[in-house]
Structure formats: structure tokens, C-alpha cells
Design brief:
The complex is a heterodimer. Chain A is mainly alpha-helical. Chain A contains three helices and no strands. The longest helix of chain A is centred in the last third of the chain and has 31 residues. Chain B has a domain of 50 residues. Chain B is built from eight helices and no strands. The chains are: A mainly alpha, B mainly alpha. At the A-B interface, helix 1, helix 2 and helix 3 of A face helix 3, helix 4, helix 5, helix 6 and helix 7 of B.
Chain lengths: 99, 218
């Protein structure tokens, strides 16, 4: 089994998440697509850690998971605050500070 | 021949999806016939079940399918459930790549904690399925899909054929690699500062989440 197969899967998952962030308007789905992208990057880290037989890549996955948890908590709090004021989770409706 | 078997199984699945889409009342019949067909395929090629390629291909296929469904499903709750399927697939990949501790962490923290947070928020806000999938404006949408495809093509071109020597063999397995001991040792010696910074980040995120979601700040 070649290691590049895992890299190709990770690349596809990253691109799917990236397109999802750009085409969806529901803020919760956008946050989920960000999780998808972070997971794809984690898979790449683990694959390269295995290839080089070095644990450093796995330590980085640990930190990426920490950042993902913090990002999900703050992001969902923002979604709740947005829903409380506008009664929607549509990001197109929260365009006050956008050009 | 593990890979042709995988292709045939995917073909069976696609036929089932087409039947489901065009003749919903025949689902039970089609499911029985196709399930018997898939079982027969597996019985004929039972040796493929022992190969790593077959399982990695199957898990990869499920991972990509569930990721696509996360993006295109109109109901946020269904999206969350498919994201959990995707996270499990990636945890299985971690196991294959000798990251046992990370696989456990992936299931406990991601599927167990973060996704439950998502489920809580969707239920709290009482979000229904979107009536017609709400997408961004046409130029941004088609531009995103086009650029996403180009990005995949670019990455495939960059990755393919560059790593000929890197193989995973069943024989090469060092049980200390990827275990909690080695990871913890690195985390508390070489990366101690980053570890403390991560704990600070978590506290900041916790305070931020409480302040943001509070009804009124006095």
C-alpha cells in the first residue's frame, strides 16, 4: 500500500471541504466543512509521520485538534449570538461589515 | 485482485442509488437483488478481504462519499451524522498508519465532544432542512467548484509518482510508534511551550464562547 494513496484521499477531502465553505450559506455547515479540511490536513500529517517514522507529525495533529476544538466552540457561540439577533444562521444575512 | 472487486462493489452501490432515485417503490426488491449480488462477488473473491488495498480503498470511498454528503445535504443534522462517519473513516486510517493513540483521541474528542457540540447547537436553534439548498450566488458557486477541481488536479499532479519508495508493509510494525508514551514524552519535553500555549488557547476559547453566547453582558 503506497503512502501516496492517503495523501490523495486527504487532498480530495480538503478540496471538498474548501468548496463546501465557498458554496454553502448555512454557518453551521460552513463550520463543519472547516472541520473537514482540518481533518484532511491531519491525515496528511499522520501519513508523513508514518513515512518518516517520526512522531513529530503526530504531535502536530494533537495541536491541530486543540485548535479545532477551540475554533468549534467560539464559532458555534458566534452562530448562537447571530441567531439570537437575526433569527437566521445564513451568512449572507450577516453582511453589515462586508463590502 | 482487490481493486477490481472494489470497483465492482462501487458499481453495485451506484446501481442501487439510481434505482432508489428513479423507482422508490422498488427499493426493497432492488436492495435484495443487489445485496445478493454483492455477497456473491465477495464470496467469489473472498481472498481480497485479506488485502490491505481492499480495505483502504473501501474506507477511502466511504470517507469521500460522506464528505460529499456533508457538503450537499440540505439538513444540517444529517450533515453532522455524515461528518461523524467521515471522522470514523479517518480514525481507521490513523490505525492503519500506526497512530493508535491519535485514532482513540479522534473518536473521543472529535466524534464524542466536538460533534456533540454541533448537535447541541442544531437542536438548540431548532434548524430544519433548508427548502431547496441555499447556496451562494452563481459566480462564486461555479468559481468555487471550478477552482476546487483545479486544486485537486494540481495536488494529484504534485503527489502522484513522487513517493515511489514509501510502502506500508504488514511486517514492519513497531508497537512503540504511535503509542501514548512516545507522544506524551515528546509533548512534555520538546514541545512543552507549545503545549502550554495550547492550554492558554483553550482557556481563551472557553471564556470567549461563554461571553459570546451569554444573553447580556453587564
Amino acid at each position: 500500500m503506497r503512502i501516496e494513496f492517503f495523501l490523495l484521499i486527504a487532498a480530495l477531502l480538503f478540496a471538498i471541504g474548501c468548496v463546501g465553505v465557498l458554496i454553502r450559506r448555512n454557518a453551521i455547515v460552513i463550520l463543519m466543512c472547516i472541520e473537514l479540511m482540518l481533518n484532511a490536513v491531519n491525515l496528511t500529517f499522520v501519513a508523513f509521520a508514518h513515512e518518516n517514522q517520526s512522531m513529530t507529525g503526530q504531535v502536530f495533529v494533537f495541536f491541530v485538534m486543540t485548535v479545532a476544538a477551540a475554533e468549534a466552540a467560539v464559532g458555534l457561540a458566534i452562530v448562537i449570538a447571530l441567531f439570537r439577533r437575526r433569527l437566521t444562521t445564513d451568512v449572507e444575512d450577516a453582511s453589515l461589515m462586508r463590502w | 485482485m482487490p481493486v477490481p472487486l472494489l470497483v465492482e462493489l462501487i458499481f453495485v452501490l451506484v446501481i442501487f442509488a439510481v434505482v432508489q432515485a428513479y423507482a422508490p417503490e422498488r427499493t426493497l426488491l432492488a436492495g435484495t437483488v443487489l445485496g445478493a449480488g454483492a455477497a456473491a462477488l465477495l464470496a467469489v473473491n473472498y481472498q481480497a478481504l485479506l488485502s490491505l488495498e481492499f480495505w483502504v480503498g473501501l474506507i477511502g470511498f466511504v470517507a469521500i462519499l460522506s464528505a460529499l454528503l456533508v457538503v450537499i445535504h440540505p439538513n444540517p443534522m444529517v450533515s453532522i451524522l455524515f461528518l461523524i462517519v467521515n471522522l470514523f473513516c479517518i480514525a481507521l486510517f490513523y490505525l492503519i498508519l500506526q497512530a493508535q493513540f491519535l485514532a482513540a483521541i479522534q473518536i473521543i474528542i472529535y466524534a464524542g465532544a466536538i460533534m456533540v457540540l454541533f448537535v447541541f447547537v442544531v437542536m438548540l436553534l431548532n434548524l430544519k432542512a433548508e427548502v431547496g439548498l441555499r447556496l451562494t450566488a452563481a459566480p462564486q458557486r461555479w468559481g468555487a467548484i471550478l477552482l476546487g477541481t483545479a486544486f485537486v488536479a494540481l495536488l494529484f499532479h504534485a503527489i502522484r509518482g513522487r513517493l515511489d519508495e514509501a510502502y506500508i508493509e504488514a511486517g514492519m510494525f513497531d508497537s512503540a510508534f504511535g503509542a501514548a508514551r512516545g507522544l506524551g514524552g515528546l509533548l512534555f519535553s520538546k514541545y512543552l511551550f507549545a503545549f502550554e500555549a495550547a492550554s492558554l488557547l483553550l482557556i481563551a476559547a472557553m471564556i470567549g464562547a461563554v461571553v459570546l453566547a451569554k444573553r447580556k453582558v453587564r
